[in-house]
Design brief:
The structure holds two protein chains of two kinds.
Chain A: H1 8-17, H2 29-37, H3 43-51, H4 70-81, H5 85-92, H6 98-103, H7 106-118, E1 123-126, E2 142-146, E3 149-160, E4 167-173, E5 183-189, E6 198-201, E7 214-225, E8 229-230, H8 236-272, E9 274-275, E10 278-279, H9 284-313, H10 318-344, H11 354-366, H12 376-397, H13 402-413, H14 436-439, H15 441-450, H16 459-484, H17 496-521, H18 527-531, H19 533-543, H20 559-570, H21 588-601
Parallel strand pairs in A: 1-4
Antiparallel strand pairs in A: 2-3, 3-7, 4-5, 5-8, 6-7, 9-10
Helix pairs in contact in A: 1-4, 2-11, 4-5, 4-8, 4-9, 8-9, 8-10, 8-11, 9-10, 9-13, 9-17, 9-19, 10-11, 10-12, 10-17, 12-16, 12-17, 15-16, 15-17, 16-17, 16-19, 17-19
Chain B: H1 10-19, H2 29-44, H3 65-79, H4 87-90, H5 94-104, H6 107-121, H7 124-129, H8 135-141
The chains are: A alpha+beta, B mainly alpha.
Chain lengths: 602, 143
């Protein structure tokens, strides 16, 4: 078992699901590709997960479930996602229950917990409307007050699991005067409705996650009791935005699971494919591509795991952190999948060759993650509105309250420390200019300098880490300077240049996350992690988003990274800074043969 | 650019403002906040301040919900007070917001500090041109 307890659930789920390359395993690549071809909802797989009681891990312990940590949550969502995003996403609509765990009454919490645990209940988030996209306040769905409750009218579309779920979280207008307090949030239980007063819209045909229940729901004078309202009347938008902070961050786990499979199946090909008397992996260019993909996963890992833990420590900063992670991780890993597709060559495009064509499914499925729950533009917009305050706060706080900042960063990034209980009521609509990750960069630099002469640490590696950290600080200062000298207007006509600054902010946040992850875990995540060559290469990779290669220190030898990639592959461990044990592919040789046979058939 | 008041006492910094003939000095706290909000709305929504009525809902001027939260952040900066992030959702006109602030917070002290900061960091003639309530913002936005 993994020394870190928060990875036990993921390891247990892996063991019980089995090797996805083996056709007899549950959620095997063969099975999920077949389901996808038939555009079939993965009902049996979801039932298996309920029987495994994974649903209990979406309910906080204080509400009678097993959820204690978002770090644990991210790990088990990766386990599902590396096999099948359709199943993972369909199952994980359960994370909308956080709306109730955060804002619901004790009675609502009990009711929902029982629905999830005792009835294998599932739910959907019914916010979007055909005419309004991300403009939630523009809602045409009305909840009109009547004695004892409300009458719902209108349609929500496109909604994942709108049809195959018992609960819809509906955002509806309760005040015709409009504005931010015009919306209320309702937990609509289909079992309580008059079936003549609601209907579902047909399944939408999609590019990826083709088996999912992407549909819609409509209401016609549909009575819902007063007790179904979550929070106060008019509090709907506030809870909706806070709920998004949770789910947008967690979406990163979908991308990370998909990225693992994209890299693993490509590596499987590169190691077995012989061309010109050697394997593809032994050729410098494909090898570099695969190593860089691994670095991308490690970078995103640091950002995702840091944020998952950060929820428990600095929930008030998540209007910033969630936007960073949702934008950065999902787009970085989309690019990573596109990068490795080159190594797979024509097979990347085939629906029945090489590992049952899982790669092309990953490409299609993964493409939705950066779009749903707030698109790239929505997240960057949410972030850019806060950039000036972040810059001002960094300048004001420089050198102040360092011990407190240091303690919070340690709590966020030291994986061997338990996290405090998550308190969703501490989420805030804006972070008041606080983002510990970038505001602590000077601290990280001081910590690095204190490492000089540390045993088992190559001085050249440390020197490069220090030098890249200086570069990050320079870029952060330049970013702050640009912000101070930029004009700003409200509204939805923000300049593309401001969006670019927001992207840069995300990159810097991710880079700093890598630094803290290394600084706070050097003593317990193994030799590869501690040696820090991966960090040098990750930081260099991110620095390339700011500066041309010739202006940077030349790339250090990446053999250690290539060897670690191979080791994790051969030992069936997750490509991660926390490489927990995956289901073992007992007969690696058989797999290779199966692959060759498929290639012959193709 | 710091707004913290710990190192200044209002009495020490009021005199330079008095000599600066800033009109905000004569305004009551409610008026000062109203003026500041109107100036922000005018500037950041490209409107003529004369056309902004303090009794009209802010949404009427194109300030959407997330912008309203951002504007609370600016207000916090200006007053160096921690305010509810949904302040402008719950008090959605300039008049209501200003009245609420004066009733619930020690705005007079905060205003003195904000003015002091503004006067200290902005040449008086510039402050006059911007009618006394745009100085700090001009510097922040760099315009």
């Amino acid at each position: 078992m993994h020394p870190l307890k928060q990875y036990w659930v993921a390891e247990a789920l892996e063991r019980d699901l089995g090797d996805p390359c083996h056709p007899d395993s549950l959620m095997s690549f063969q099975q999920v590709v077949e389901l996808d071809e038939r555009e079939e909802f993965p009902e049996a797989l979801l039932n298996w997960l309920y029987n495994w009681k994974l649903n209990h891990y979406y309910i906080p312990t204080e509400c009678g479930g097993e959820f204690t940590s978002f770090e644990e949550f991210v790990a088990f969502v990766r386990v599902m996602s590396r096999r099948d995003l359709t199943t993972s996403i369909s199952f994980t609509t359960l994370f909308w229950s956080y709306l109730v765990w955060m804002a619901g009454t004790e009675k609502q919490k009990q009711r929902l917990a029982s629905f999830i645990k005792d009835q294998n209940g599932a739910m959907c988030l019914a916010y979007s409307e055909r005419a309004h996209g991300s403009d939630l306040v523009g809602s045409d769905v009305r909840a009109t007050k009547v004695p004892g409750g409300y009458l719902l009218n209108g349609e929500k579309w496109p909604i994942n699991r709108a049809t195959i779920s018992g609960v819809s979280f509906v955002l509806a207008k309760t005040d015709e005067s409009g504005g931010a307090r015009s919306l209320s949030l309702f937990m609509v239980e289909k079992s309580q409705l008059d079936s003549a007063t609601y209907y579902n819209l047909p399944k939408i045909l999609t590019h990826g996650i083709r088996g999912s229940d992407m549909s819609g729901i409509g209401f016609k004078d549909c009575f819902i009791p007063e007790s179904s309202r979550i929070g106060a009347e008019g509090a709907g938008l506030e809870w909706a935005l806070k709920g998004f902070q949770v789910t947008r961050t967690l979406c990163a786990a979908f991308s990370q699971g998909a990225a693992d499979t994209a890299l693993r199946t490509t590596l499987n090909f590169a190691l077995n494919r012989q061309l010109y008397g050697k394997t593809v992996f032994d050729m410098p260019q494909p090898r570099r591509t695969l190593v860089d993909a691994f670095l991308d996963i490690l970078i995103c890992d640091c950002a995702t795991i840091g944020a998952a833990r950060g929820f428990h420590v600095v929930p008030e900063q998540f209007s910033v952190w969630s936007a960073v992670v949702k934008y950065f991780v999902t787009t970085q890993l989309e690019s990573m999948v596109a990068d490795v597709s080159v190594v797979l060559g024509a097979r990347y495009y085939m629906r029945d060759a090489h590992d049952w064509g899982i790669f092309q499914k990953v490409v299609r499925d993964n493409a939705i993650i950066s779009v749903f729950d707030g698109s790239t533009v929505v997240n960057l917009h949410a972030l850019l509105l806060q950039l000036r305050q972040l810059a001002k706060q960094r300048s004001r706080q420089r050198g102040k309250n360092l011990e407190v900042l240091q303690a919070r960063l340690a709590a966020c990034f030291s994986l061997d420390q338990p996290v405090p209980t998550f308190d969703g009521r501490k989420l805030e609509l804006f972070s008041r200019g606080a983002d510990d990750v970038l505001q602590g960069l000077e601290l990280a630099l001081a910590q690095l300098q204190a490492l000089e002469g540390a045993p088992n640490l190559d001085s050249g590696v440390l020197q490069q880490i220090v030098s890249f950290t200086h570069l990050l600080l320079e870029e952060l200062n330049a970013l702050d300077h640009s912000l101070e000298h930029s004009t700003f207007e409200f509204g939805h006509d923000q300049s593309p240049e401001l969006f670019d600054l927001a992207k840069q902010y995300c990159t810097l946040h991710a880079a700093a996350s890598c630094l803290y992850m290394w600084l706070h875990n050097r003593n317990h995540l193994g030799a590869f992690f501690a040696q820090g060559e991966w960090l040098v290469l990750c930081l260099r990779r991110l620095a390339l988003k700011f500066r041309p290669a010739h202006s940077l220190a030349s790339r250090i030898n990446d053999e250690a990274i290539a060897q670690e990639l191979l080791r994790l592959y051969q030992e069936d461990k997750l490509f991660s800074i926390v490489p927990f044990q995956l289901a073992t592919s007992k007969v690696q040789g058989d797999q290779t043969n199966a692959t060759s046979e498929l290639q012959l058939q193709a | 650019m710091q707004l913290q008041n710990s190192s200044y006492k209002p009495s020490e910094v009021l005199s330079p403002i008095d000599s600066g003939t800033s009109q905000a000095i004569e305004a009551s706290p409610v008026e000062a906040i109203q003026q500041w909000l109107v100036s922000q709305l005018a500037k950041q929504l490209s409107l003529d301040p004369k056309n902004i009525k303090v009794q009209e809902p802010l949404t009427r001027y194109g300030l959407d919900s997330i912008d309203a939260v951002t504007l609370v952040g600016e207000l916090e900066d200006w007053l160096d007070l921690e305010l509810p992030s949904t302040l402008l959702w719950d008090y959605p006109t300039v008049e209501k917001a200003a009245t609420f602030l004066v009733q619930e917070f020690d705005v007079a002290t905060a205003l003195n500090t904000a003015k002091a900061e503004s006067a200290l960091s902005t040449p008086p003639e510039k402050a006059e041109k911007s009618s006394g309530w745009g100085g700090l913002w001009n510097r922040i936005s760099g315009s």
